């Protein structure tokens, strides 16, 4: 009997080609669309119409799974809460652990599927996650909090392709060809423009306050701490400054931000919690990504109980609490954790 695979079909090109490729390989493919939020007008209608068309053309089932209350609890509320706490959240990392490779994985098991597949650009060998072939699309960073025991049931057919190849392949298939013309999805699926539009719905974010220097002296003013992320350069005043200043720290309780010159922005040590490790070591050397679009930095990691300290080989600017630190050995993801504190 053919192996059964559930494909998360968002209506976009990557997951449509994923379903097509797996069917070509002989899998019994079942498509699933997850309703995750109602924050953007016509979002689901357009996506579902597109997904349904593809499913029909492949002759496969297409389920609609309403996971919106779980998504609100695990991803949306966390996202808002982190900004209120002065941190910079990573909702996609949370979603991958709890929703796409959490609740959707549970659904796949209930359906008796052997595998779950998505259009993520990453690789897995069932034990580890690896960077995708296409550097510019690689999503391994966002997958680094997935539970390790789920990995043996995952397939990422995009792993060996470049996005341009997928668009080209999709364009040879009549129904998918239409999808190829759709606009790329936004970075965070529920943020249409800027994150502050979302936070504004829950609280007043315009709370003028003081900008301090690293010694605690008042040097200027800001618009409200939730407008800033670590490393941000604009949107606050520093009296008499001749050089650009950057946000170094955010204190939500005092509604202050600490600003500094570029030279003082770097951190050499990073403390992380909520560890998800794919290796069983307490001390190791590796490279680390401290945000998505950045270079890896060589480091040493020491784990103590539920936290880890990362000793960076060189100072790194703009490291934000709330973001995810992902460890790599070459292309292999070794694990990750959420940034709790940084040290100069
Ligand atoms: N609402 C959804 N329902 C089902 N699967 C989803 C949904 N959103 C994302 N996915 C799955 O997660 C994968 C990665 O999502 P992401 O939003 O990062 O990708 P994308 O580049 O927009 O992909 P696509 O072109 O397939 O929309 C998708 O390819 C798809 O398999």
Automatic annotation (TrEMBL):
It is found in: Cytoplasm. CDD domains: MnmA_TRMU-like. Keywords: ATP-binding, Cytoplasm, Disulfide bond, Methyltransferase, Nucleotide-binding, RNA-binding, Transferase, tRNA processing, tRNA-binding. Residues 198-261 form the tRNA-specific 2-thiouridylase MnmA-like central domain. One of its GO terms (biological process) is tRNA wobble position uridine thiolation. One of its GO terms (cellular component) is cytoplasm. Residues 137-139, 291-292 are annotated as: Interaction with tRNA. GO terms for molecular function: ATP binding; methyltransferase activity; tRNA binding; tRNA-uridine 2-sulfurtransferase activity. The active site is at 95 (nucleophile), 189 (cysteine persulfide intermediate). The keyword tRNA-binding applies. ATP binds at residues 8-15, 34, 119. Residues 275-339 form the tRNA-specific 2-thiouridylase MnmA-like C-terminal domain. Its main location: cytoplasm. It catalyses: S-sulfanyl-L-cysteinyl-[protein] + uridine(34) in tRNA + AH2 + ATP = 2-thiouridine(34) in tRNA + L-cysteinyl-[protein] + A + AMP + diphosphate + H(+). Its EC number is 2.8.1.13. The record marks 120, 323 as: Interaction with tRNA. Catalyzes the 2-thiolation of uridine at the wobble position (U34) of tRNA, leading to the formation of s(2)U34. Belongs to the MnmA/TRMU family. This is tRNA-specific 2-thiouridylase MnmA. The gene is trmU2.
């Amino acid at each position: 009997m053919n192996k059964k695979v559930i494909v998360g079909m968002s209506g976009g090109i990557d997951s449509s080609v994923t379903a097509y490729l797996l069917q070509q390989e002989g899998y019994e493919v079942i498509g699933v669309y997850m309703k995750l939020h109602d924050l953007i007008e016509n979002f689901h209608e357009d996506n579902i119409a597109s997904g349904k068309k593809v499913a029909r053309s492949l002759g496969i089932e297409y389920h609609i799974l309403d996971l919106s209350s779980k998504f609100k609890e695990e991803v949306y509320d966390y996202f808002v809460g982190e900004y209120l706490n002065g941190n910079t959240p990573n909702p996609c990392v949370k979603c991958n652990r709890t929703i796409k490779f959490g609740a959707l994985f549970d659904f796949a098991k209930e359906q008796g599927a052997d595998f779950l597949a998505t259009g993520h650009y990453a690789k897995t060998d069932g034990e580890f996650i690896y960077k995708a072939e296409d550097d510019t699309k690689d999503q391994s960073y966002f997958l680094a909090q997935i539970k390790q025991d789920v990995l043996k049931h995952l397939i990422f057919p995009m792993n060996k392709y470049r996005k341009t190849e997928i668009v080209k392949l999709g364009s040879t298939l009549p129904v998918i060809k239409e999808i190829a013309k759709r606009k790329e999805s936004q970075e965070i699926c529920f943020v249409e423009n800027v994150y502050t539009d979302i936070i504004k719905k829950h609280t007043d974010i315009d709370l003028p306050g003081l900008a301090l220097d690293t010694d605690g002296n008042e040097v200027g003013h800001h618009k409200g701490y939730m407008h800033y992320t670590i490393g941000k350069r604009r949107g606050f005043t520093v009296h008499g400054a001749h050089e650009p200043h950057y946000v170094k720290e955010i204190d939500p309780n005092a509604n202050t931000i600490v600003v500094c010159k570029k030279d003082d922005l770097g951190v050499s040590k990073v403390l992380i919690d909520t560890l998800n490790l794919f290796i069983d070591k307490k001390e190791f050397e590796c490279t680390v990504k401290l945000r998505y679009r950045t270079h890896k930095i060589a480091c040493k990691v020491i784990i103590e109980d539920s936290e880890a300290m990362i000793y960076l080989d060189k100072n790194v600017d703009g490291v934000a609490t709330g973001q995810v630190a992902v460890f790599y050995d070459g292309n292999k993801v070794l694990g990750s954790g959420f940034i709790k504190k940084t040290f100069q």
